[in-house]
Each structure stands twice: as C-alpha cells, then as structure tokens.
Amino acid sequence: MNNLTILVVDDDPVIRKLLEQRLIKENYEVLLAEDGYVGNEILSNTHVDVVLTDLMMPGDIGGIEVLEFAKGLERNIEVILITAHSSVDTAVEAMKKGASDYLEKPINFTELFLRLEKISTMRSLLRSAEDLRQAMDVTETTASETIQNLEVLADVLQNKIDLIDTILTNDGLSADDKVSDALDVLQEIN
User: Fold this and answer.
1) 65-82, pLDDT tens digit by residue?
2) Signal sequence: where (predicted)?
C-alpha cells in the first residue's frame, strides 16, 4: 500500500472518477472534492499528503486558492495542479507559490505516478533524515553525560590519589599507620 493520502479536487465528475479509480488501483488512499470549497473543508478536517487539483474551477475557489489554503494549513502538503495547455503560465506561477508540480490535460498517468512516487520517496527520505537526527541527538546527549560523569570520577580519583600521597609522605605516621590509612582511602573508592 502506498503511504500517501491524495485529495482530488476537480469540478469535472468524469475526471474525478477516473483519477479516483486509477489512484485506488495503485493503492493510494483517495479523497474527492467537487470544488474548491469542499476541497478546503476536507483539508481543514483530514490529514492529506498530496492535493491533486484542477487549476480552473467555477466559483471563487480555484486551484490557486486551494494551493494557498493547503500551504497555509501545512507547508508539507504537496500540491499538483492539473491544467489545460492554455494555462501553463498560470501553473508555473503557482509553482512559485509552492505547488510541487503540474500536469497538462489530458492527464498522462505514467507521469502522475512518477511524480507521486517521487513525492513518496522524498517524504521517506525526510522521515529517515529526521529519525537519524533524533538518534544523533540522543547519542550526543548520552556521550555528553558519559563524559561529564567520567570527568567527575576522574576528579574524585585525583583527590584520593592526592590524599594517599599526603598520607604516604607524612613523616609523623608509622609505616603501618601509613599503609592502614592509605588502604582506608582506597576502600572508599568502591
């Protein structure tokens, strides 16, 4: 099963149904919206990885508005615009606003699936990088704590060595007292 949830926003019921069938066949989870209003409602209430939206739709909410709404909710949502040849310039402008890509009509499903696979791979790489960063943070924290503990232990041992040196060089103690006192200090180390 592919790990992407895809929201298809298109006012054409034939294109919506065709996209739904092909995406489900490829094991994607698919949500459908017949216009930008419904698309934005779904985006507000449901986790979506990719929005596949028609650029030109009737009403006040077209593909650009869906793109802006999606990116406003979560910058990691990928948006692919579906456009007629005459609106390629608009699609390119939309990419400057954060769209991942665009497809021209009629939709080439091989291209679409390659782009979705690229998005899936990129997300997987980002998750792996995040996991690696977290593991490195834990390792760094553990190493720092270990070094700090070793520094404290080294300081304690140095103090014991200094104390034993003082005992052994004390001319006021007998040899037996020096050995006994030094052994007492050594036993305190454990």
Assistant:
1) 999 999 999 988 999 999
2) none
Rounded Cα distance between 39 and 23, Å, is: 17
Q: Which amino acid is at 137?
A: D
Does the residue 155 lie in any domain?
yes
**DSSP letter (8 states) at residue 146:** H
Cross-sheet strand order for the sheet of 29-33? 29-33, 5-9, 50-54, 78-83, 101-104
Q: For residue 88, how far is the Cα from the chain centroid? A: 31
User: SS3 for 32?
Assistant: strand
Count: domains in the chain: 2
Give the global pTM: 0.69
Asked whether residue 67 is assigned to any structural domain, the reply reads yes
Q: Do 146 and 103 belong together in one domain?
A: no
Q: What is the DSSP letter of 85?
A: G
